[in-house]
Amino acid sequence: MPPRAIFQTTDVTNYPSLLALFDLAFKTYKRIDHVVSAAGIVEIGNWFDTSLTLETVRQTPTHKVMDVNLLGSMYVTRIASVYLRHNRGSNCDRSILLFSCVSGFKESPSLFIYQASKHGVTGLMRSLRTYISSPYKHHLRINTVCPWVTQTDSIKKVEAQWKRAELPINTPQQVATVATGVLADQSLNGMSMFIEGGRAWEIEQNINRLETEWLGEAPSKVLALGQGLLDDGSIWTAPERLRKKSTISVGVPPGVPLDKINGLTNGVKHVISDGVTHGMSNGLTNGVTNGLANGVH
């Protein structure tokens, strides 16, 4: 019997390092069911410091935040899209969960590069959610979770002020419970869960439902026509506009349309309890919890 859990030090900015992690998991368990990309770091310095001069601006700034948060998520998702579709039986659910943040959809002053990276993570999910769930493509689900302030080392600078204001703070366990619930619910694809105080709220449905209000009815119609023309976007990457079915052998239902999801996302407010973890290994919840507690988010 393989161990319930294994650990390997991995650098998400190093492609071979990530491949080694996936190889170890695949070799140990003979298959990979779900992948969680949670590595993240906060802002380093100030890219737009007002003290910059014509001389100091010549020094190349660090892009480690972008490398870890966005490039790392892209690497993980690319590799996962291949490993997840191997050794899968019929009706075997497989999914990818990316950790974005409130900064992935709401402005975060002074977190310039961090916010750009998290917007990128959310954008990656949105770009992939139709493509990756197609039965003729990878036939996988992909979602994001967007935790607000969580009890980790990264909130030390604001923790006291936050508590005085009696604002909610997630525990790593609460975030892990939501993450596990998203992985467990086979109806969820292309969703973003905002997590505050242990409660989860799905945001993608309302963004789509209210488009005519925030964009306007006329531009929404034109946008829909253009999106329909582009379809799955293959025109950007394929040498010719041909519709070819993949030879990938899959057994999972395609992603559920945004207007037909249920389970965790019933209505506008979606409160996730311990019940959503039914059928999922406690090891997964504990693993995500431990990762969050050590500063990844």
From TrEMBL:
Keyword Membrane: no
Pfam families: adh_short (PF00106)
Cellular-component GO terms for this entry: cytoplasm
Entry annotated with the keyword DNA damage: no
InterPro entries xrefs: NAD(P)-bd_dom_sf, SDR_fam
UniProt GO molecular function: oxidoreductase activity, acting on the CH-OH group of donors, NAD or NADP as acceptor
Keywords attached to this entry: Oxidoreductase
Coiled coil: none
Family: Belongs to the short-chain dehydrogenases/reductases (SDR) family.
Protein name: Uncharacterized protein
Protein source organism: Penicillium freii
